[in-house]
Structure formats: C-alpha cells, structure tokens
Amino acid sequence: MKNKNIVFIAKSLDGYIAGKNGELEWLHAIPNPENNDMGYNQLMEDIDAIVMGRTTFETVCGFGIEWPYQKPVFVLSRSIKTIPEKLKEKVFLLAGSPQEVLQEIHNRGYLRLYIDGGRTVQDFLKADLIDELRITTIPILLGGGFPLFGELSETMEFEHIQSTVFLNQLVQDHYRRKR
Q1: Per DSSP, what are the bridge partners of residue 138?
Q2: Does the residue 114 lie in any domain?
Q3: What is the DSSP letter of 28?
Q4: How confident is the model at residue 64, as a pLDDT?
Q5: Number of structural domains in the chain
Q6: Which of 112, 129, 169, 177 has the fewest CB atoms nearer than 10 Å to its CB?
Q7: What is the pLDDT of residues 163-176, one digit of tens each?
Q8: 18: in domain
C-alpha cells in the first residue's frame, strides 16, 4: 500500500479555516437538512489514521460530543502531556518534525493519513508531504482569521482531479500533488 497524506478541510471564500477568534459556526452557515457528509465517509475509507495539531484536538474535545473518530488519531503537541483516560486507546501524542512524525506513524503500520489542523497542514505543506488536497469552499467572507495556507519557500504544483458541488452552494475541489 502506498503512503498518502490527504488534507480534507473547509475554508471561507477568503481562505480562512477559522474566524478571528477561532470561531467555526460559519462552517454550518448553509443548511444541511439531509446531513450530507460531503465526502467525509469516503475519506474515512481512504485512510488508516488521522494526524492533527493540538489546537484542533482541543477544539474537537471542546465540542461536548462523543469522540467522533473511529480511526487512530495522532496529536502533534509539545505541551499536552497526557490524554484523557477515555481516549487512551484512540489518541496518541507525538512531537517532532513532520518527517519524524510520519516515520513514527509509518513504523506503527499506518500509511494513508488524514492531515488536519491549520498549523499542521501548513507544516506538512512546507515539508512537501501533502499528496492530496480536498478543500470545500463555503460561500462566506470572514474578513480575517486563521488562513489555510501560509508562506512556502517554493512553488508547489497540484493537478485538479475534480470539483463537486454540495447543497447547491459548497464547492469541494480535489487536487493531487504533481511530483
């Protein structure tokens, strides 16, 4: 099985993944009465594990819901020292460069990864470790916040695979890294 690192994320029209104060309510601005998963279940079939940063982990924990992931989750953090007891068999802490983190995860047998969280995505992009981008654009301008993309030292080319429209308003673009 080939290694693959996939970003699956939503952004505003102006390129933000969270508002100025980290708010995410805008992600649900478009009604979804039939609970369309917008490709999420397919993503879960395509991956072995999830890699996320501390902020994303803390945000998910703060939702006040049951842990939403069935796959192992690797949280990248130098500051978190312990995982809540109820997540001990589901969540694992790692620290290091993106390359070091991938080596550790691959050594554990997980090769196809969902990379999540703003800084984590940016760090993996800077290290040229992202193979696919699946980005859903929500038709809203936030006017500021946490950007999806940061500065890169080199241009990176991606090939457009497809665009899918959900709920007649959300556009999900799928890209593959040209190597």
Answers
A1: 12
A2: yes
A3: G
A4: 87
A5: 1
A6: 169
A7: 999 999 999 999 99
A8: yes
